[in-house]
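[stage:ingest] chain + small molecule (magnesium ion)
[stage:ingest] validated
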Amino acid sequence: MDDFIFNAADESQTARLGVALARVLPPGSVVSLCGTLGAGKTRLVQAVARACGVEPRAVTSPTFVLIQEYQGHRPVYHLDAYRVRDEDEFDELGPEEYFEGDGITLVEWADRVEPCLPRDRLDVRIEVTGTDARRFAFRVLGNLDPTILDRLVGEIRS
Ligand SMILES: Nc1ncnc2c1ncn2[C@@H]1O[C@H](COP(=O)(O)OP(=O)(O)OP(=O)(O)O)[C@@H](O)[C@H]1O
Ligand SMILES: [Mg+2]
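[stage:predict] done
[stage:export] tokens:
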């Protein structure tokens, strides 16, 4: 499958998308999130985290903490590259440890640190298409199992 496009009409649909995503991502998955301020990156992470048994209020856009670990029934690692100065500073945070772990790792502002990310990952681009409308474009990169997107479609429709 090429890009999978999901148009969320409102926040509740973004939340459903996040739950569906959590169901299809295998342990050790890395998700790169790109989109402007307020696009909905953190909202999507919140929904994934909730589906993994994490209290969604624990999930915020990190201000000073650039990496947050949430322990649900599956670990969720939330990285945010917005405030990192450059790629070196990001690498110094030790992201490999998370990429290689068994949790789901989601990286906000992934475009800022693209060379530091694993090649095999799910890339998500979010566009603001209306006050409450958001367009999510999903793309499988590298050797990530491409059937993830087919299963994501199945989960959303179920
Ligand atoms: N369909 C939607 N999906 C997600 N968020 C939505 C939607 N409609 C409206 N919103 C609003 O858009 C904002 C998204 O905020 P969020 O913190 O998720 O953005 P972000 O991409 O993480 O931004 P930042 O780059 O500042 O971290 C929230 O205020 C939310 O209420
Ligand atoms: Mg955010």
